Amino acid sequence: MNVIRTAMLLALMTALFMGVGYLIGGEGGMMIAFLIAAGMNLFSYWNADKMVLRMHNAVEVDERNAPEFYGIVKALAERAGLPMPRVYLIDNPQPNAFATGRNPQNAAVAATTGLLQRLSREEVAGVMAHELAHVQNRDTLTMTITATLAGAISMLGNFAFFMGGSNRENNNPLGAIGVLVAVIVAPLAAMIVQMAISRTREYAADRRGAEICGQPLWLASALEKIATAAHAIRNDAAEHNPATAHMFIINPLSGEKMDNLFSTHPDTGNRIAALRKMAQEFGTGGGAPTRRAESRPAAAPHGEAPSPQAGPWGARPQAEQPRPNNPQANPWGRNPSGPWR
Length: 341
Prior knowledge:
Blueprint: H1 2-55, E1 59-61, H2 67-80, E2 86-90, E3 97-100, E4 108-112, H3 113-118, H4 121-136, H5 139-166, H6 175-213, H7 216-232, H8 236-240, H9 268-282
Parallel strand pairs: 2-4
Antiparallel strand pairs: 1-2, 3-4
Helix pairs in contact: 1-5, 1-6, 2-4, 4-6, 4-7, 5-6, 6-7, 6-9, 7-9
């Protein structure tokens, strides 16, 4: 199903590219756009993840310079049965995260420094479990190619605006109307494609992420904090590259642009409600996550003996995941362990 969905997405994006090319230069422009789209599809398959990480100035980290964050991802990847992805940090005060890569063997997960500073260890685990769910569901290929091609369609629309207005002898079969369609309709259509694939995959990743970490409320609490902060803290890199907004766990764009009117993410309140319902199914209660999952187990109801907590930081896995005695500073000189150190 994911392979079919990706193929349909690539076909639709290619058709949009060809349509804009036709509006700019007629049949010749359509053929040129087709060749460009074919080359970009191939390039995106192999390099879109690197481009997205570069757009957001992500820096790769490991167990030496970000031991606790790296350890969280490693423990979750083992629980999910996934290969260890590359781990990146983004120096940005807005708490957020995304995953990218063409398949689980070539995946990467990235989180902002704001995420590590504002969220508890358990909430960070919930967020990264969500991102690993995208990797496991192979959403990351769709996400990276969509981001690349949507941005390229917008750039082609801008090209149509400048070329269409300055060249009276171009091959545009629809004249000024064709230019307006290329400038407005094509980027809007690309945005609608992003919306269509984003809403359903976010719910699916929420559920699978909660299964991976074993605590739906960790992710629910994290979503609430991230959504609140995302509206208050500007993410300049995302604002400059809005085509990548759908990749983040919460829309990183502020309310200053039109993008928010066409949100690529489901309503956060609905996502939280779904996770709380899932927590009841799991029997994990309804409260917010504690400061440290390994500090003390949750109290059992009606005076029953407490059972070990689910997730990689419950009572039993504690010895398997020792906490580093002296975490080293991350690339920006701040402790990557965040507020739970």
